[in-house]
Amino acid sequence: MSTPRLDYYTLAPQSAKALGRASFTAGCTLDKRLKELVNLRISQINGCAFCIDMHWADLIRQGADPRHINALSGWREATRFFSEPERAALNWAEAVNALPQRSPSDEDFELARQHFSDEAIVELTFVVGTIRAWNMLNASFHTQVPETPYVEG
């Protein structure tokens, strides 16, 4: 088990609160389930246990089927669990998250455009940006998974 390093929320409360407001606002026009699927998937990729726990719990509170959530890391193969728009959003989110090692391709962008407005694609990209920031903070400072899942807000 890793030892917690720093409590960034205590040491930089204004910055942490600003990021909280940004992540609450990012994607506010998107479907809540879709936003949480993206948050969970990016957190899985980035290895942020704190965020994985929080977004999994949020999806459960929304009534998501645990079997579907458990299949999220294999969404490309688990086609029965994810709609075409969800699959397009997850594809876009993974492509954006891969920066700078890989840039989203024209094909990634066109797939997103088949299912989302330009505004929704921008909102989705903001969601990826904010969850990446949380993932980076929590993984860097070894934020521990709480006894009960953290609830945003």
Describe the overall structure.
Helix content is 63%, strand content 0%. With 153 residues, the chain is an all-alpha fold. The longest helix has 23 residues, at 118-140. The radius of gyration is 15 Å and the shape is globular. It starts with 7 loop residues before the first helix and ends in a 13-residue tail after the last helix. Residues 22-95 form the Carboxymuconolactone decarboxylase-like domain. InterPro entries: AhpD-like, AhpD_core, CMD-like. This is Carboxymuconolactone decarboxylase family protein. It comes from Alcaligenes nematophilus.
Give the biggest sheet.
none
The geometry reads as globular
Helix content: 55-70%
Q: SSE order, as H and E?
A: HHHHHHHH
The fraction of residues assigned to DSSP E strands is under 5%
Q: Which consecutive residue ranges, at least 5 long each, have pLDDT under 50?
A: none
Number of strands: 0
Rg, alpha carbons: 15 Å
The mean pLDDT is: 95
Distance between the termini: 28 Å
Q: Structural class per helix/strand content?
A: mainly alpha
Count every helix, treating DSSP H or I runs of 4 or more residues as helices: 8
Domain Carboxymuconolactone decarboxylase-like: 22-95
Protein name: Carboxymuconolactone decarboxylase family protein
Pfam families: CMD
Organism: Alcaligenes nematophilus
Task: Considering the chains and any ligands shown, give keywords for the structure.
mainly alpha; 0% strand; 153 residues; 8 helices
Give a quick summary of the entry.
The protein has 153 residues and is an all-alpha fold. 63% of the residues lie in helices and 0% in strands. The chain has eight helices and no strands.
